[in-house]
Amino acid sequence: MLMQTHEARLQALREELKRRGLDGFVVPISDEHMSEYVGDYAQRLHWLTGFGGSAGFACVTLTHAAIFVDGRYTVQVCDQVDGNLFEYRSIPGDSLGAWLREVSEDGAKIAYDPWLHTWGWVEALEKQVEPAGITMVPAHSNPLDAVWSDQPAPSEAQAFVHEESLAGRSSADKRAQIADWLTDKGLDAVVVPALDSIAWLLNIRGKDVDHTPVALSYVIVKSDGTAELFIAPEKVTPELTQHLGNAVTIRDRSAFTGALGEYSGKKVSIDPNYGVVGIAQALRAGGAKFSFRDDPTILAKAVKNPAEVQGHKDAQARDGAAVSRFLRWLEVTAPAGEIDELTAAAKLEGFRREHGDLRDTSFDTISAAAGHAALPHYKVDEDSNILIPPGSIYLVDSGGQYPAGTTDITRTVWIDTPEGSEPTAEMRDRFTRVLKGHIQIDSAIFPQGTCGGQIDVLARQYLWEAGVDYAHGTGHGVGSFLAVHEGPQRIAKPTGGQAGTNAELHAGMILSNEPGYYKPDAFGIRIENLVLTVEKEIEGAEGRYLGFDCLTWVPIDRRLIEKSLLTASEIAWLDDYHAKVRALLAPQLEGDDLAWVERETQPL
After folding, report:
1. What is the dihedral of CA 454, 458, 464, 468, to 10 degrees?
2. Are residues 295 and 307 in the same domain?
3. Cα–Cα distance for residue pair 215/198, rounded to 1 Å
4. Where does the Peptidase M24 C-terminal domain lie (predicted)?
5. Where are the alpha helices (DSSP H) in 5-92?
6. Which end of the chain, N or C, is more open, meaning fewer C-beta atoms within 10 Å of its C-beta?
7. How far apart are CA 438 and CA 414, in angstroms?
8. Chain-centre distance for alpha carbon 395
9. Tens digits of per-residue pLDDT, 381-413?
């Protein structure tokens, strides 16, 4: 029988916990690979609570339930989750350990799925709750899955080969690099559970997760450069088998746990951020000597080779033309007041598809009008969808997955009225301060060894001068026809809660440059381009210096700029940027679209 209400689902989970002799269970947004985006089968938190955000977790005991989200989702969680069923808790201020101590009795057994959490997560939680007599228990099977009667099956889509001409390196070459790393560390093997790492390492892609072209699988790489790929048989084609060759053994995904027991006495590495507890427990049970080390593919994947850089530039040129056509369409149609957020998002995707080779969007498009634009991670759906009001700001953050590269761009534009209207002085001031910070990041030059946390202030300085700020990072890494959010690099305030801010920036890394400003219930502003980290030639330089080359080419709305706030060099930057936009996009456009780009890229 299908349970239609979240109250019924919560009750069914509690009955299952009672049957197993458990007092509680933790429900994360996660899969067995600690992916950012997960397949439908792993959307357990959404099924239980109705919450549709991309980060958060719930905990259910026999008498209490709470859902924990960060500040990005404070409004969304109240809209989507019944406050009579779940308490709203905000992280990092509220901790799961503290909440469990509040609601649990001495001797309580709180279960977790060991295939959905990392070792560090469990260790930290145990330290918080054990003094209160609470025990964390790994569940032999997921109790929520036992009551989710219509749970979707994992995707059966076939994996496919990512051509070496786009990858720039052979899988054999990449595996040899990992083998050298294993030998250098005195290790016999490394378990690679992260789906984008597997895709990069083997030069394969898949269709198992929305927005990220990966295939559900695991890999174990050995010190001799051979590897074992654990993947469902229905996903394997003759082309894939031929591509992988004799050095990669293909085994059924269901054999993975048992295979970990074959490493008795061997030294095996797993990544603490992607290797779930279940992997570590299986290695330990089999007698392996496992240790936690960073996935050796992550840095190698982040530093793009010349083929990947060229592919990304090709994808960006195509994407820029599509986004520009969309912005012209929006300028013409939106002032009538009949275009809503969902329609705009669909139209943008349509323009991308018309320009060919689009495989997917790289994330859910943030199509945000008026006050919705003040929510940095707003996700439009049928319930939240509104008409885009004439005489307001509209923000669209979107991206595409092309075989040549992954794109991510944000543009904030003024929606005019039929009779004509002007942005407020405050809107222009904030937009221009965001633009000034964006220019500072784009123009930055810094010595080798600099990390993203050290340059984040460049983007915020002009907002700080006005007594305002933004609560998200300034930039994240981007993959090559892979994850739109890729580590280890990141530009953000250098605090303990911002992973990657201490990662060194290297030539070849792609990052976003996306400062913003958000006025609650009024408007939001963000300007985002992608940039490539490159070596900068400086006469007389003492050491190696790096900077950025811009990769994204779409006009920036000049109606929102307060020119008096810009310096001569900043005006020169904008004029130069727009000249390059015009030169790149003009050959791809015609008619009204071409005329629009030529008009929008005239000198300020």
Report:
1. -90
2. no
3. 9
4. 545-604
5. 6-19, 44-49, 74-80
6. N
7. 19
8. 19
9. 898 999 999 999 999 999 999 999 999 999 999
